[in-house]
Fold this sequence. Notes:
Blueprint: H1 15-25, E1 30-34, E2 38-39, H2 79-82, H3 85-93, E3 96-99, E4 106-111, H4 114-123, E5 128-131, E6 136-141, E7 147-151, E8 154-157, E9 163-164, E10 174-175, H5 178-181, H6 211-226, H7 232-247, H8 255-267, H9 272-286
Parallel strand pairs: 6-10
Antiparallel strand pairs: 1-2, 1-3, 3-9, 4-6, 4-8, 5-6, 7-8
Helix pairs in contact: 6-7, 6-8, 7-9
Amino acid sequence: MTQPAPIRRVRADSPLLNTALNLASADVPVLPLRAGKLPVGNCRSCAAVACGGRPNMREAGPCQCPAPCHAWAAATTDPAVLTSRPWARAWRQAGAVAYHPGGAGLTVVDLDNAAAVAWARDTLPATRTVPTTRGEHWIYQGAMPSANDVRPGVDVKSSMSYARWLGPGSGTVTALPDVVRALIVKKPAPVRPVRAVAVPTGGGRCPHRTPVYLERGIAMAVQRITAATTAVHATVFGAFLAVLSTHGRCGCLTDDHTNRLFAAAQAKGESPRHCADAWTNARTRLGL
């Protein structure tokens, strides 16, 4: 990757930038949004996630890029960064200011229509509310994992997510209640069996002196995935890579083993497609 350009400050003469600086001074990490509520696209150094970021922008880095890349992960409270030249063009073209709720220790319950607002008023504890174009944001003190479509018209935005800044709203911010945390807790979906995922058919040296060796490797990979609290995508890929690097050439891996790995990943929120892609990418990396 090319070396990042030195950060040079520009004048804070944009209304959106001034709003961002005010929020940053209150320890709220902010970033610019393009028209259409989209984050700024990755720069040339980060294009095609060459820096190691994720194409779906759910995870970032490692990245030393000074530009506002990687969506929520670019959010910052540093005024020197916010007013630097790499950010200047983004502010000139910005359509809105966004912030990273989880980075500010907040959770936003995004209510997208009148029915969702009515549900919240009947179900959730009162807190600060902010009017939106079609509904309301209910803001609570406390961070949690983010999730979309937790019920009709309701998203939860906190860690690894961003929300538009639409003003301070009204009311007092109250503590994040268990009823909101429970919104993202779903019954485990049935694990889809692995059908299209290729398993090595043998030909390499078998390192397994006993079946216990392979079982320990699978168990360790499952435990690694289960223990992940951040960077789940990267953790799943790393666990798959570790299993395949040790056990992928001798033909001892079975559908049962891969199903256990996929089940652990799906329990952490990965889709069957993400699991299959991570498995295929790990095999490709190892030349299997």
